[in-house]
């Protein structure tokens, strides 16, 4: 199983970034895909979650209306579109897959929001 995130970087407040997570080694279409983020000395936080089929997506309150999670099952990729970014969104963002009762994590991508 491999999850590879990309798309992080430095952006000014109010800007946008789109994170991607390319998955391989499992049946992507049947996996629950999520984005988490973590800052130093704090626990990893769920940002957004998308079920495998149907159901509602979930977002942490602080990103509702600004972030959108989506997936392309044909490309085995999950995305996180982040708009109206704020300095408090600065973190390492991780992709997670849950499939067959197992959890897999990517290596993370740094997002820094700063003027």
Write the layout of secondary structure elements.
Layout: E1 2-6, E2 9-11, E3 17-24, E4 32-38, E5 45-50, E6 58-59, E7 67-72, E8 77-82, E9 91-99, E10 102-105, E11 109-113
Parallel strand pairs: 2-11
Antiparallel strand pairs: 1-3, 3-8, 4-5, 4-9, 5-6, 7-8, 9-10, 9-11
Written overview of the protein:
Helix content is 0%, strand content 53%. It is mainly β. The strands form 2 sheets. Strands 2, 4, 5, 6, 9, 10 and 11 form a 7-stranded mixed beta sheet that branches. The protein has a 4-stranded antiparallel beta sheet with strand order 1-3-8-7, with no helix packed on it. β4 (32-38) and β5 (45-50) form a beta hairpin.
Q: Which secondary-structure class do the elements indicate?
A: mainly beta
Biggest sheet character? 7 strands, mixed
Number of strands: 11
Gyration radius from CA atoms, angstroms: 13 Å
Please provide the ordered H/E string of secondary-structure elements.
EEEEEEEEEEE
* Residues in β-strands, percent: over 45%
The rough form would be described as globular
Number of helices: 0
Helical proportion? under 10%
Distance between the termini: 37 Å
Unreliable stretches: none
In round numbers, the mean pLDDT is 96
Top keywords for this entry?
115 residues; mainly beta; seven-stranded mixed β-sheet; four-stranded antiparallel β-sheet; 11 strands; globular
Please provide a brief summary of the model.
The protein has 115 residues and is mostly beta strands. Helices cover 0% and strands 53% of the residues. The strands form two sheets. Strands 2, 4, 5, 6, 9, 10 and 11 form a seven-stranded mixed sheet that branches.
